[in-house]
Amino acid sequence: MKSSNTAWEQDKNYIFWCPKCNIPLLEEECGICHEKGAQIELSLPGDVRFSSQHERKIINSLMLEFFGSNSLAGKFVLLNKIPGEDKTDEILVDGIRFGVLRFDMKELTFKLDLMIEGASALINSGILSKLVKVSSGGRHLSGKNIEGSEVIECSEDIRKGDTVLVIARNLSGFGISYRDSFELKNPGQALKIKKIGSQEVSFLPGNPSMDEIIRANAPHMKRLVRDAVNTIRGIANQKEFRDSPVYVSFSGGKDSLTTLDLTRSAVKKPIKVFFANTGIEFPETVEFVRRFCSENSIELIEVETKEAFWENLPSFGPPAKDFRWCCKVCKLAPINTVIEECTRGGGKCLTIDGKRKYESFTRSRIAPKEENPFIPGQVSVFPIRDWRAIEVWLYIYYRKLEFNPLYELGFERVGCWLCPAELSAEYYRVRELHPELFGRWNDYLLTWAKEHGVADNFIEHGFWRWKVLPPKMIRLAEELKISTALKGKKEEFGIVVTGGVSPCKTGGYTMEGKVSGLTLDEAQNIANILGDNVLSEDLGVLLVKTKGSSVKIFSSGHISVNAPDEKEALSLFENAAKQLIRVKKCTKCGVCLKVCPVDAIVIEPQLKISKECTRCGKCTESCVVVKYFDRLLPGFRKRA
Q: Which residues of 394-413 are buried (b: 16+ CB within 10 A; e: fewer)?
C-alpha cells in the first residue's frame, strides 16, 4: 500500500455518484438520466464493492448503539478496502464518504469511525443523539480540546470516550468526549474535536434498486464484458489452442465465477473446470462448486488432497502470510500435476483465471497473459485483471448468477477456512458459523503456543499469522504487552538430500532435497549466480534455469534439480547448496566484493547478487563460507 508507482496509482481511483438518481457510477454519465455524476476520490487500491448482508447488519447495529438511530437503513452502502490493522473499509453512501468500519485488534470487535462528511450528514438529518454545541468558532478547532465552559448544550446520552457530533456556530464535525453528559459543562477539558468544517452535506432522497444501478452502469459494463469476451475468444481461437479444451480455474469465489461465465459466453468448445479441494475448504464452497458445475453441465476436475494439510502440519507448523507452505502442498502441486498430464507430449493447456490486480500488491502488475515458466505448455489468461470488485458484482447480479453464500455471511474473500491471509474479523466469523472447525484449529494453535512459550493471547490476537511480524503487529503487541518471542532458537540452516540422483519420467535426471531455515527471498538474492530465475509468490516457488538444467526451490523447503545426466544433476545440486548456505551464513567479510569483475555483489543489508553477474565463479572460490562448506553441512557429500 505504501509503495509508489504501482499499477493501482496509474488507474482512476475514483467513482462517480448521480445526485439525481442517487446511484454509484463507474463512469461520469448516468445511464438512466444521462446527467454527470459527482466524482468521489477513493483511497488505494480503490477496490470498491457492495456491502454484504452481514456487513450492513454490523453497520446498522453500530449506528443504533452510538447514535440511537440508523440513518443508513435501506440505503445502498459501498465499502472500499483501505490500509489498517485488520478489516478496514471506507463507508460510501449517497455519494458521501461517511466513515470507516474497522475490526479493532485490541478489543476484537467492530468499530465505526465517523468522517467529517458523515458527521455533517447526520447533523443535517436532524439527529439529536450524541450531540454537543459549543460556543467556539473557526476552522482551527480541528484537533483542539474544548473546555467545559465552552459547551452550550449537549444530549443526555453521552458517555466518556464516545464519538460525538459537534456544532460550533456555523461549523459541524465530530469529536471524542472526555466525560459523561452531566459533567461536560464543568471546568476543565470536556472534549476533543477531531474534524470540523463548514461544508453542508446531506443524505440524498430515494433508495435505488439493484436493477436501476445495473441500468445506470450498463454502457460501462457492456464495454468491459465485450473486451473480456474478445480476449478469451481471441486466444482460445489461436492455432496452438484451437484443438485443445479450455480450462477455467474455479475456486468458488466471485472472480472465478465471473470468469467462468464469461468463458462460457466466449467459446463454444468444451470447457473444463479445475477445483482444488484442499481438505480445508469451507463446506459451503465445496457444495457450491459441485452444485454449480452439475446444474450447468460443466465438467469438473476436482483435485482432492484430503488430509494433506494435517499430515504436513507437524513438520512445518502453522502456515503464515509469509510462509504459505500449505498452498504448495494442498493446492498448487496437485493442480500442477493435472496440468502436467494435459501438456505431456508437447500439448497445450489454456487456463482462464480470475485474478485481479486490485486484490493485492503482489497482483497489481499482473499481465493479461502469462506462460507458466514451471509447466511448459500452460498459458494463463486473466480477462478481468482490470476489473474492480463492484464491476464483478454488477456482472453477477446482471447475469443473475448463483454465488457462494459465504459472501453474504461476512467474508470478503473465499479461501481455506483457516488461511493465515484471512482477516481476523473473518477468522472469528468462522467460530460463529463452524464452531467445530474453529475448535480443531484453535486447539492446535493453543497447544503450539504453549510448546513455544507464548501466551494464549498471542493466538487470540492473530500473531501466529506471521513468521516475521509487520510493524503494525509489533506496535499492537507492545500496546497489549504480549510477548512475541517464541521459545527456542530459530531453525538452523540445513540441507538434507531426500532422494539421490535418479532418472526422471519427463527426461533427464533429478535430485531431491529439503532446505530448512531459508526463505525464498533469501534464495533469490543468490539465484543470479546459478542462472536466469523467476520467483512466483502465488506458487511459492523459485525457478532457476541453466543451460539444459533447472533448480526449483519451494516455500515448503523442497528443492528439486533436473539435469541431462547424473553427473550434472549432482554438480548442480551441490553448487545450489553452496550458494544457499553462502547467502544464509554470509560473514560480510567483503572479499567477494573485491574479486567481482562487474560489481554485481552487495552485502548490506544482506548478500545479494544482481543480474549483471557473469557467473565467473571468482566470488564463490574466494568465499570463506563455501571453503568450509563440508564442515557447515557435515555428511552432505556422503548423503549425496
A: bbbebeeeebbebbebbbbb
